[in-house]
Amino acid sequence: EWYHMAILEWPYLVGETLTASSVARRLGISRIEAQAAIDRLFRLELLEKDENGKVRRSKDYVIVRSAAPNEAGDAQ
User: Fold this and answer.
1) Is 4 within 8 Å of 40 (Cβ atoms)?
2) What is the b/e burial string over 7-18, where b = at least 16 CB atoms within 10 angstroms of the residue's CB?
3) Neighbours of 29 (CB within 10 A)
4) Measured on CA atoms in the order 1, 24, 61, 48, is the torsion positive or negative?
């Protein structure tokens, strides 16, 4: 879902704590969807907590591939 990429950017928002409630409110999705997405991103090790307990991205970039042809794949 589209909101996974938005959640990956969340740690860069100043003054925003990553919670299911804050994600749901800002992105217009349900709290259950937000919590499931956050849990999934931690499980996939795309998000992690630092030594102070603050959430951060575990990688500087994410590569997304699609089996279906698309315009982005044609750009060279």
Assistant:
1) yes
2) bbebbeeeeeeb
3) 19
4) negative
Average pLDDT in the 18-46 region?
Answer: 95
Q: How far is CA 9 from CA 4, 15, 39, 75, in A?
A: 9, 13, 15, 24
- Least confident range from 16-20, 51-55, 56-60, 64-68: namely 64-68
Rounded to whole angstroms, the Cα distance separating 10 from 23 reads 8
* Per-position DSSP letters for 47-71, written without gaps between them: EEE-TTS-EEESSS------SS--H
- Output phi, psi for 45, to 5 deg: 60, 35
* Whole-angstrom distance, CA of residue 66 vs CA of residue 60: 20
